[in-house]
Amino acid sequence: MPPSACIPRKTQGKGTVLMPISLSNGPFPRAASFFSRSLHPHITLGRNRASQNLAMNTFAAAATPPMPPSTKKTVKVVIKGRVQGVFFRDWTVQNARELGLNGWVRNRRDGSVEALFSGDPNAVNEMVEKRCRVGPPAAAVTALNAFPSNEDPGQGFERKPTM
Q: CATH no. for residue 125?
């Protein structure tokens, strides 16, 4: 059985043992009861294959290390149109927090709104392409320019003073 189909299991004083993920359907169907008694004193497998698979898959899921965190994406956005005086910043703060993004939003003296969004790439794309292009009900977005940024977004999402 290839090592990729096995779970490393450390035993007391016996080193590391590679245990097949699905013992009852593999090349060693009788090994399930052996492994359940000798390596897993807290897991008792049933007599039928369905309960054996359920118990082994539950153990395999618990032994699987967590997925690595997704890479973060940071984007600076300038939004033009009727975007000031229509609660665009408050709306942006609320939506960014719903999506779990970090960053900030502020009005600019030229009448536009500038924002920095950082977090999960899918959430950043959702915020920029689907939400900010439309804005709150009273807004009228005429242009949206987004570009990658290396700026530190800080923790959480906040409203900054006008620049």
A: 3.30.70.100
